[in-house]
UniProtKB/TrEMBL annotation:
It holds the Pfam family Hydrolase_3. GO terms for molecular function: magnesium ion binding; phosphatase activity. GO terms for cellular component: cytosol. It comes from Brachybacterium nesterenkovii. The lineage of its organism: Bacteria, Bacillati, Actinomycetota, Actinomycetes, Micrococcales. The keyword Hydrolase applies. This is Cof-like hydrolase. The keyword Transit peptide does not apply. Keywords: Hydrolase.
């Protein structure tokens, strides 16, 4: 890793060729669901300079503010499982039905509070609905009901749905909000097909986390977009703060880490900048010549 953050005397690089920039949402572009005006303005300026900027998030489309689609050139969602750009859906990968059924059976057997995330819905067991609503309100809520963070919380809560048949749902990944068994143990019980990752929202790694499609990563979304746009991988830029960003940061030509992220996230970073509350992306874009 090149720790350019600790070297303020470093000369500013030359403006790059046409780039594709991939931004994680929570903790990178947005602060608790609220996008700083400085970040929104910086993204538009980078686009005006001829670069492509895409959101690259673990969130599914079902819980992304709809207005985001118009502020980016494309969306990589569900941790790389779905890619939308230029009015096209380039991929929409789901966990295979057999693995999905095994996962639901294991989660039900252990009494976990979980959500099956798809682009269309956030499917949860009825017994877990109250717990998820309470956790979301506590973790993402705001004292100001008119704040963007509060609006984001309401959007997620409104997306929670209790289906007739959880085992028959089609979904891209699983968020676990509370489980008597550890996340890695649950992944092992399900068997091949899923990988366990800590969750960047709940903050309780012992009892919560994510089960993701083992065949898909944000890096796959980056590669697919780069091919679609005809951009060399060396001319891609990624920014992220969570464990599901590691693959993306290792894959891109220039990796931006966020201060305070776990060590494995910062390891591949070429530069490290502050979080969204301190407008870190503005600094990053300036330092790498996008602004």
């Amino acid at each position: 890793m090149t720790d350019a953050f600790s070297r303020p005397d470093q000369t500013r690089p030359e403006p790059p060729r046409r780039c594709a920039v991939f931004l994680d949402f929570d903790g990178t572009y947005a602060d608790h669901g609220a996008v700083p005006a400085a970040h929104a303005e910086a993204v538009q300026a980078v686009r005006a300079n001829g670069h492509h900027v895409l959101l690259c998030t673990g969130r599914p489309l079902a819980i992304l503010p709809p207005e985001l689609a118009g502020t980016f050139d494309g969306l990589v969602t569900s941790a790389g499982a779905r890619v939308d750009i230029d009015g096209q859906t380039l991929c929409d990968e789901r966990i295979d039905p057999e693995t999905a059924r095994r996962a639901v059976a294991v989660l039900e057997e252990h009494g976990a509070a979980y959500c099956l995330e798809s682009p269309e819905a956030m499917n949860v067991p009825e017994r877990a609905m109250d717990l998820l609503r309470t956790r979301l309100t506590s973790l993402l809520g705001s004292a100001d009901p008119d704040s963007p963070a509060a609006a984001g919380t309401r959007m997620i809560i409104d997306a929670l749905t209790v289906p007739d048949d959880l085992a028959g749902c089609s979904f891209a990944k699983i968020s676990i909000w509370d489980s008597p068994a550890g996340i890695r143990e649950l992944a092992e019980l399900v068997g091949p097909g899923l990988r366990a990752l800590p969750n960047s929202i709940t903050g309780d790694a012992a009892r919560s986390g994510e089960l993701q499609n083992a065949r898909i990563d944000k890096a796959d979304g980056v590669a697919l977009v780069a091919r679609h746009l005809g951009i060399d991988i060396a001319d891609t830029v990624g920014a992220g703060d969570g464990m599901n960003d590691v693959g993306m940061l290792e894959a891109v030509g220039t990796a931006i880490g966020i201060e305070g992220s776990p060590a494995p996230v910062l390891a591949p970073a070429d530069i490290i900048v502050p979080g969204p509350s301190r407008h870190g992306l503005v600094e990053a874009f300036t330092r790498i010549g996008l602004l």
